[in-house]
Amino acid sequence: MSPVIVFDRDGHFVAATGSAGGPAIIAYVLKTLIGTLDWHLGMQAAISLPNLIAHGDHFSAETPKFAPELLNGMIAHGLDPQPVQYEESGLTGVLVRADGSYEGGADPRREGVALSY
């Protein structure tokens, strides 16, 4: 529902990502974009980050995947992430590496693979 294609200022392809997941799709995709573009993670690493999804005032999270300090910080700031076994994202993506090759990523929460060339 919200695939994203990223281009640099010169119009060159940088990355693309998207997900299944109903109302949480935007959060899944945004997490992946932050991971790749802001934190300079590879596509697979960004897709594999734990999910934290806001549903109005309710937050669901893959709490076992978060560091205890981070969970405690969220709680201290008024967030009370409710544990879920997994947020069933279905992210896939591709990223252009610095050497011009491509790195694909597929969500480990679902079946699928990504091949890189």
The major sheet is characterized as:
4 strands, antiparallel
Element pattern in H and E: EEHHEEHEEE
Strand content: 25-35%
Task: Give the structural class.
Answer: alpha+beta
The radius of gyration is 15 Å
State the low-pLDDT regions, or none. Answer: none
The proportion of residues forming helix, as a percent range, comes to: 10-25%
Topology record:
Blueprint: E1 4-7, E2 13-18, H1 25-38, H2 43-48, E3 52-55, E4 58-61, H3 68-76, E5 82-83, E6 92-96, E7 102-106
Parallel strand pairs: 4-5
Antiparallel strand pairs: 1-2, 2-6, 3-4, 6-7
Overview of the molecule:
The protein contains 3 helices and 7 strands, in the order E-E-H-H-E-E-H-E-E-E. With 117 residues, the chain is an alpha+beta fold. Strand 6 (92-96) and strand 7 (102-106) form a beta hairpin. It has helices at 25-38, 43-48, 68-76, and strands at residues 4-7, 13-18, 52-55, 58-61, 82-83, 92-96, 102-106.
Give a nutshell description of this structure.
The protein has helices at residues 25-38, 43-48, 68-76, and strands spanning 4-7, 13-18, 52-55, 58-61, 82-83, 92-96, 102-106. The chain is of the alpha+beta class. The longest helix is centred in the first third of the chain and has 14 residues, at 25-38.
